[in-house]
Amino acid sequence: MSDVNGNGKFLVGIFDDDDVVLKAVKDIKKEGVRIHEVYSPFPIHGLDVALGHPRSRLGIAAFLFALSGTTTALLLTFYTEGFDWPMIVGGKDSFSPIIYVPIIFELTVLFCALGMVGTFLVSNGLGPTVKPLMYDLRTTDNKFAMAIDLSKNTIGEGDIEQILRKSGAAEVNVKQF
Amino acid sequence: MSHVTSAVRTPLVTGGKTYADVTEDISRQVEGSPTREWTIAFTISVIVLLYGTACVFWTWWEGLGVWGLNKTVGWAWDITNFVWWVGIGHAGTLISAILLLFRQKWRTAVNRAAEAMTIFAVICAASFILMHMGRPWLAYWALPLPNTFGSLWVNFKSPLVWDVFAISTYFTVSLVFWYMGLVPDLATIRDRARSKVSRYIYGAFALGWNGSAKTWARYEYMSLILAGLSTPLVLSVHTIVSMDFATSVIPGWHTTIFPPYFVAGAIFSGFAMVQNLVLIIRVVFKLEDYITLEHIESMNKVITLTGSIVGVAYLTEFFIAWYSGVEFESYAFINRATGPYWWAYWAMMTCNVITPQLFWSRAIRRSIVWTFTLSVVVNIGMWFERFVIIVTSLHRDYLPSSWAMFHPTLFDISDYIFSFGLFFTLFLLFSKFLPVVNMAEVKTVIKSSSEKLPVSVSGVAKGERVANPTFNKGVE
């Protein structure tokens, strides 16, 4: 998993409400605690910014894959109809990019979509054989978990627990990986 | 804040649901034993599918002579069914992609079922291409394979080859979009699974999803780009399908209005099919709190809009046929309305133009019975639209000596029935083994759209921390 940093001891704060966890992230960071990651059953807008995650570059990957699709379509149509087996059908030129717009468009979309989804899966370490690292099984149902890697924090475990509870955590658990 | 919504908006989720309720209500049908209704429906579908499959194989075994095609009408039910099924698929992409870009939150309750409908409808459409090939074992000839493979290169100038690219891309992208949308919900089912087998299977398909903030952020970004890709894609697919006709020189086909007219018609019939499926789902799976009258009314508004566009398109092509001064073109249209297929033309006009206008009435728009009935009527009408375009344009050639009528045979009818068996079998399997409503997405709108507004909303709107959130307490 991309978010596993070896074995470690984590303090996991469980929250009941997404607004509370979003506010808690900001409060806890102000206290100087380094948050490992937050897990939720649905996307919380603004959470990635609050956690300081960099903006996704999937768009760049998507553009490059789209470009490769366009190039493939152009090369395919040029090679087959313009070079390998030139034919004049219906009075149209052997190679005329206008006629091939549907092919170019479809391959651009196809390459872009498949490439981007593939990039997404690889960059997040997702795959059929991946065993998920779950800090709390309820985070795919109705709870929100904030994981704090104790080895990455200088503040003591007891203090962090107190900060978590003060920020609205309904329970705080210890998780060892 | 994402959760703040005007209090005057009608709730999208009723019954004061919590996050846990959403999981419980939607997962119930996946985790429980099949219901009696599901078992009966599935049995009927499989019987129909088996009968249809036998007929399709007989069609291939004997050749396309078993259909009612003749020297004049070389395309009939096969292409009618193909265009009809592709059109039905379009509503799924429209709901999942275009409405996502427009930030229409009501789509969340119906997008999953609509996307599934898209996948299965495109499979049915593709089956008619295979049937029409006559020799399906040579279907790979439609792919751009090297000369040395046994045939020449495909003709990239042909709209039929554009179709191959368009439909296969559409199917692949829709499948990916649908599957990626399922992943978070599959993880929910995985984490609730009680048996080892289901934990393993759902776990494999959930791809190790754990809902981290970083993954969610990337996931949303990816969904947005996929939606941005799917939007022109859905428009391109039916545009290209319409070019199968528009690039020909047959009167009644050779018109520039076809691309937008076909796209509007596709969305029209697609939404009608979504209505039919969703109305059944909400009752059978007891999802009335999630698929509310608001959702049904919103979809009926889309049906009214697209039905009106289709109506305008019918009138426009009739007007242009007269205005062009081309007697063959004028004849094609007058013959449609008054010739031997007048009944099909007027069935089309009645079902697609007149009856959907009843949705201007709020009472009808919000009536389950009216909605279901009119949606069936729309689907019948849209089938007739494709039949009228295809058969009435072909049955009268330039030479009166070539004129002929098309009469469907048992195999025309049975092969169409096959597609219903295939569609409903696949849809019922989907509805049993996968969550029919997107749990993760509904959870994002429930707070702002629930009729029981949580205390936390007002507090956070001011950017303050909520001291005692009460929203999710019901599940403690």
From TrEMBL, chain A:
<dbReference type="InterPro" id="IPR021776">
    <property type="entry name" value="ActD"/>
</dbReference>
<feature type="transmembrane region" description="Helical">
    <location>
        <begin position="58"/>
        <end position="79"/>
    </location>
</feature>
<dbReference type="Pfam" id="PF11821">
    <property type="entry name" value="ActD"/>
</dbReference>
<keyword id="KW-0472">Membrane</keyword>
<keyword id="KW-0812">Transmembrane</keyword>
<feature type="transmembrane region" description="Helical">
    <location>
        <begin position="99"/>
        <end position="122"/>
    </location>
</feature>
<keyword id="KW-1133">Transmembrane helix</keyword>
<protein>
    <submittedName>
        <fullName>DUF3341 domain-containing protein</fullName>
    </submittedName>
</protein>
Automatic annotation (TrEMBL), chain B:
<keyword id="KW-0472">Membrane</keyword>
<feature type="transmembrane region" description="Helical">
    <location>
        <begin position="224"/>
        <end position="241"/>
    </location>
</feature>
<protein>
    <submittedName>
        <fullName>Hydrogenase</fullName>
    </submittedName>
</protein>
<feature type="transmembrane region" description="Helical">
    <location>
        <begin position="161"/>
        <end position="180"/>
    </location>
</feature>
<feature type="transmembrane region" description="Helical">
    <location>
        <begin position="261"/>
        <end position="281"/>
    </location>
</feature>
<feature type="transmembrane region" description="Helical">
    <location>
        <begin position="416"/>
        <end position="437"/>
    </location>
</feature>
<dbReference type="GO" id="GO:0005886">
    <property type="term" value="C:plasma membrane"/>
</dbReference>
<dbReference type="Pfam" id="PF03916">
    <property type="entry name" value="NrfD"/>
</dbReference>
<keyword id="KW-1003">Cell membrane</keyword>
<feature type="transmembrane region" description="Helical">
    <location>
        <begin position="302"/>
        <end position="323"/>
    </location>
</feature>
<keyword id="KW-1133">Transmembrane helix</keyword>
<feature type="transmembrane region" description="Helical">
    <location>
        <begin position="343"/>
        <end position="360"/>
    </location>
</feature>
<feature type="transmembrane region" description="Helical">
    <location>
        <begin position="81"/>
        <end position="102"/>
    </location>
</feature>
<comment type="similarity">
    <text>Belongs to the NrfD family.</text>
</comment>
<feature type="transmembrane region" description="Helical">
    <location>
        <begin position="38"/>
        <end position="61"/>
    </location>
</feature>
<feature type="transmembrane region" description="Helical">
    <location>
        <begin position="114"/>
        <end position="131"/>
    </location>
</feature>
<keyword id="KW-0812">Transmembrane</keyword>
<feature type="transmembrane region" description="Helical">
    <location>
        <begin position="372"/>
        <end position="396"/>
    </location>
</feature>
<dbReference type="InterPro" id="IPR005614">
    <property type="entry name" value="NrfD-like"/>
</dbReference>
